Amino acid sequence: MSLIGSEATFIAVLAPFAAAIVAPTLTRLLAHNAAWPLALVPAAIFLFFAGLVPEVAGGVSFTPMVDWAPSYGVTFSFFVDGLSTLFALLISGIGTFIILYSGGYLKGHPQQGRFFSFMFLFMGAMLGLVLGNDLITLFIFWELTSITSFLLIGFDHLRAASRRAAIQALVVTGGGGLSLLAGFLVIMAVTGEANMSAVLASGDTLRDSGLYALILVLVLGGAFTKSAQFPFHFWLPNAMEAPTPVSAFLHSATMVKAGVYLLMRMHPVLGDTALWTTILPVFGGATLLVGTILAVRQTDLKLMLAYTTVASLGLLVMLTGTSWEKAIEGAALYLLAHSLFKGALFMVAGTIDHEAGTRDITRLGGLRKAMPITFAAACLAALSMSGLPPFVGFIAKEYLYTGIWGGAGANYALTATAVLGNALMLVIAAAVALKPFLGPKVETPKHAHEGPVLLYAGPVVLSLVGLASALLAHDTGVLVIGPVVSSILGVPSTVDVHLVPTHIGAALYLSLGTIALGVVLFLRLDALRAGTAGLLTAIGWGPDKGFDQVIAGIVSFSAWVTRTVQGGRMEVYMTMTFLITAAALLVPMTVAGTWPTSFAMPGFRFYEWGVLAIAAAGLVAVLIARTRLTAIVSLGIQGFAVALIFMLFGAPDLSFTQFMVETLSVVILALVMTRLNLQPRDHRPMMARLCHSAIALAIGVGFAGLLIQITSAPFDRRLSDFFEAYSRTIAHGRNIVNVILVDFRGFDTLGEISVVMITGLCVLALIRVRPKRSAEEALDLAAGDEAVRKREEARV
Amino acid sequence: MRTVIFRTIAPYLAALMVLFSVFVLLRGHNEPGGGFIGGLIAASALAIYGIACGVAAVRRAITLHPMSLSAAGLLMSALSGLVSLFTGQPFMTSQWWYVRLFGVEVPLSTPMIFDIGVYLVVVGSIGSIALALEERESD
């Protein structure tokens, strides 16, 4: 590889994990200023990938790798091409400013170090995801982003809403992850390849495969849940419970685009089929409309932005789903534009919340004097989001309108969806950027003033990049968008990006129409909000409620199963166990007709008969014993007699063990008896006695039949011969039983002693169970918990 | 159960049983015996001592919690399997060393270490169950 060296890519992916380890210590030393040195890590990663851009733009893609689990063919390998480079740049570039922003936003938070740690873990996982070449590597990083997202959403874990949102996100994206894993496994089976680069080179293999529909549905299951497509969109707005840096980074700029990334990545081998161009635009379009309409309903800045993120993801999926070249170009541009303006706007929303103490748009106004820099950044970002020139958002919209209107086939439904969606996004952009700043000054919970540089650096730089990438449209096209489009289409392509439309066409008219519609709607925002609110109240049900219902259903179902299966009556458990044992013995023999027909009585010596008689006498004693303790001891007699039989028939080890086990079981049973405070006598009704005797008889008959059947079959000596031949020579032991236990089948023994120990621990735990505390004590305890929780909250 | 005769004999009996259990454990490779049986004998010794002289006395005598013995045994067994990795052989391939001690050649091996681990697991687990049951009897 001619590039800087494959090691560098590995270091770039591993660096955030290293930063995650040092972050808490550094934060303890430097407090919130730790953000400055920590931000150097993503900045260095950004520079590294920026250095790769010229070569990647030249059409080079490369795949550094090392073996990971060679016996399963899993490698730790990365695939660097246009698409992954753009994502890596977004993750590290935006990540740099997010780390700085986190320093200001969570200033003085007792867990700031942990927060940095989680953020870096996520950054590493996300880089691994977009660069991962091996499908298993990719999947592991995919799941890792879900887990870090869970940790970050639930960062404020003392609030029930955070915990619920975190679990919901984990359930939805984690469930999708499993679907993706299944999809990857099918892909690996069909293509015989484990690497993304090899799969991408497999041409039409997947599309021609009979399993194509299955693969597509499984992969979409992963992508749609991760990228919050309708009807799985509900977790994303709930994820706004996370601190704002998380919302800006994970839930707008990077992680939620993982699904879109996957679709774009797999487009060369899965895309451009009837199924693809039907499912994706339908779901994407629905998501776009649902997202924008729900956004209008909100008054919380973060929630408005969250729903437009859902909508933007829908737009990206819709564009990718058309498989038209121009639309794909629009998607690539929009991907870049959205990460920049949405990251910036989230940070603006966070700054307002941080400085003014609220983010409810109806309680904000007139902040322009107090927060001029934030206001400027908000305006720049909002202009890009609205799709106005001279911002990259405008170019993106030009291209996507060209794509769906003038592309391979004009599609009125898609165009109408896009226009309406974009117009509503303009409404939200204007509302977020203008409402809090313009108008008369509104009294806010905190006295608002401009935040520190840590807070405004991010929004300012990101919105300026949105402007710069549009002004330098040609370079953006050659260096970034072209390689991305090549990756998505799977063929080398160049994209000529212009800021000024080259001709007056449908796209420009659609753009103007969008802006006009948006402005009209913005002026009637309050009426619009009331309207959608009324509509949603009328519907009254949504996937979010559905999620709760499903979870509640699972919980009550498992409670029902537990209640039914584990009623808590030992007698029932025992009866069931023995009944099933009897059935397992008797039913197969009866069905297969293998009942032993003859039984050859072996010729016993008189003392052997004597021992058998003792065993029988022990059993009779158990049955006629008047107290339980006598019965237990009598059972011991039978056990010792059996041990004697083992001895007489040449199994000293077995006999030895049997003696010890019998002794200990009598002792332990006797101890248990005294502990349980049972009545010394056994009073069972006649009916129960008969029933239990019948079960006991059935088991006895079953075992006898089974043993006779086994012993009457010819004995296969192969194993015995093997052990006899090699026990002395290989394992240096004359006691074959012991050699089998500790050497030939030592692994089994290792498992068995683990079980012995676990059993010991469980019995110990059972013995120590105390009766439930009285209700009063329980109340006191709960009150104590409450007090502790309050103290914690006060501290935070 | 706490008769004078029993209480007088029990310590000696238990000591003898523990000694015997070690003997059974070590002869196991060639004669009837082994870690499992040895462990059961030693556990019985603990149980007898506990019944005769009280659980507190047993706990004092063995210093460690019996479950710790059990855990140590499990660790020992698992680690004995790892020794073979240093010679490039698969997990749990037995390794033998012949050491001369006081003019006698003593064969040592990883299966022996493994068996001692089994012994400890059985003593610890069964012993702690028996002791825990006896303990509640007194309070």
Helicity level of chain A, as a percent range? over 70%
Q: Counting H and I runs of at least 4 residues, what is the number of helices of chain B?
A: 5
Largest interface (CB within 8 Å) is between: A-B, 40 and 50 residues
Average per-residue pLDDT of chain A, rounded, comes to 87
Shape of chain B: elongated
The helix/strand order of chain B is HHHHEEH
The biggest sheet of chain B amounts to:
2 strands, antiparallel
What distance lies between the first and last C-alpha atoms of chain A, to the nearest angstrom?
A: 51 Å
Mean pLDDT of chain B: 88
Which structural class should the secondary elements of chain B be placed in? mainly alpha
User: Based on DSSP secondary structure assignment, what is the total number of beta strands of chain A?
Assistant: 2
- Structure classification of chain A: mainly alpha
Q: Which spans of chain B of ≥5 residues are poorly predicted at pLDDT below 50?
A: none
Number of domains of chain B: 1
How much helicity do the residues of chain B have? 55-70%
Rg of chain A computed from alpha carbons, rounded to a whole number of angstroms: 35 Å
Q: In words, what does this structure look like?
A:
The complex is a heterodimer of chains A (796) and B (139). Chain A has 32 helices and two strands. The longest helix of chain A has 32 residues. The mean pLDDT of chain A is 87. Helix content of chain B is 70%, strand content 9%. Chain B is built from five helices and two strands; from the N terminus they run ααααββα. Chain B is mainly α and 139 residues long. The two termini of chain B are 16 Å apart. In chain B, helix 2 packs across helix 3. Chain B has one domain. The mean pLDDT of chain B is 88. Classes of the chains: A mainly alpha (796), B mainly alpha (139).
